[in-house]
Write a structure and sequence with these properties.
This protein is mostly beta strands and about 100 residues long. The chain has no helices and eight strands.
Length: about 100
């Protein structure tokens, strides 16, 4: 797991982002949560060579457009709406 948090000392921070790493399958998952009452812009970590992020869940969008089973490629940054919205990205090889 890799934490993407630079504000641990701020006990009022309500944003959390992290990457879960699966070294056996060579797939990573990035998740971000925002419970502030304002927007938070987050930069997704740079993928390794010949890999890219695919957006799988985006709760900024209404149902059923918030889930992408095969993922949407080409995401580099996100703006997370306030109040318990989340993003879920899966790291895949470019040739998939």
């Amino acid at each position: 797991m890799t934490w993407h948090e630079d504000n641990w000392e701020n006990f009022e921070s309500k944003f959390l982002a992290f990457t879960l790493h699966d070294h056996n399958l060579q797939e990573d998952v990035y998740l971000a949560f925002n419970t502030h009452d304002y927007f938070v812009k987050a930069t997704i970590p740079s993928p390794p060579a010949k890999r890219r992020w695919f957006r799988v869940v985006d709760t900024n969008l209404g149902s059923p457009d918030d889930f992408f089973p095969k993922g949407v490629p080409g995401i580099e940054s996100i703006t997370i709406l306030p109040l318990i919205l989340q993003f879920f990205f899966k790291l895949n090889r470019e040739d998939m």
